[in-house]
Amino acid sequence: MSKSTNTSKRVILIVNVVVLLGLSGATGYLFMKNKDLRYELSLSEQDRIKKKNETLLADIGKLMSLPNEEPVIVLVNNPEKAEAENPGIKAIFEGLQKDDYLLIFKKAKTGVQFRPNENKIIKSTTINLPIVVEIIGTSADIAASEKSLVQFGNQVSIIKTVSETITDSAVFDVDNNQSTEVQSIDKILNFGVTNTLPNTVTASEQAEIVLLVASTPSSTDAIPAAQP
User: Fewest CB within a 10 Å sphere: which of 148, 171, 216, 219?
Assistant: First the structure.
């Protein structure tokens, strides 16, 4: 056998090994991709959203230091519609584009606008959001309590939930992170602060502070009105 023939066989052998290694790598890649896809499909919709949000926060966290709290995350699908329905957005964030993410850190009072297709923070700013207070009680009790809170102005946003079953008045901090505001409200209403809600009461998803207003014959007189 000639030297050139042996060399040719070695070249063919090396080429075949390279091809096999390439096919092995491609097969491994496809296997991992299919495995990841199967894992994604096995997750519930809630878990998929949670996983996506975690990835988003990790990406943004590489660009800036984020507050240590779970933000409200909004994906902008239609910039014009978003600005029309929420005029405050236009005042806070700049030049909204489709697929921008808006992150609202309520406790830290921070807003972040992130553009994933540029991997860029468009804006990070301090924002002042009203605290969402849910008042639960009879219609008359709710009206009296709302009147007492008028001095807070636009610092609070009120949700009204009519109920005839409240037997004890109290102020409840839903996420245990509004202690100053809870004390301020209780100073006016003198309800007392509670660490738990009754089993029959569930706070609204948006609520940050819950006011339980017990129904009494003289409830509208018992709750002090706002000072002029």
Answer: 216
Residues 175, 13: Cα–Cα separation, whole Å: 67
Produce one character per residue of 199-227: b if its CB has 16 or more CB atoms within 10 Å, e if not: eebebeeebbbbbbbbeeeebeeebeeee
Tokens 């102020």, residue located:
171
DSSP 3-state of 66: coil
**pLDDT value at 139 more than 60:** yes
For every residue of 166-198, DSSP letters joined together read --S-EEEETTS--HHHHHHHHHHH---EESS--
CB of 149 closer than 8 Å to CB of 156? yes
Average pLDDT value for residue range 117-124: 95
Verdict on whether the full-model pTM lies above 0.70 = no
Residue 59 has pLDDT above 80, yes or no: yes
Contacts of 215 by beta carbon, 8 Å cutoff, 6+ apart: 137, 138, 141, 164, 166
Laid out side by side, the sheet with 156-162 consists of: 156-162, 131-137, 209-212, 170-173, 193-194
Rounded Cα–Cα distance for residues 29 and 42 (Å): 20
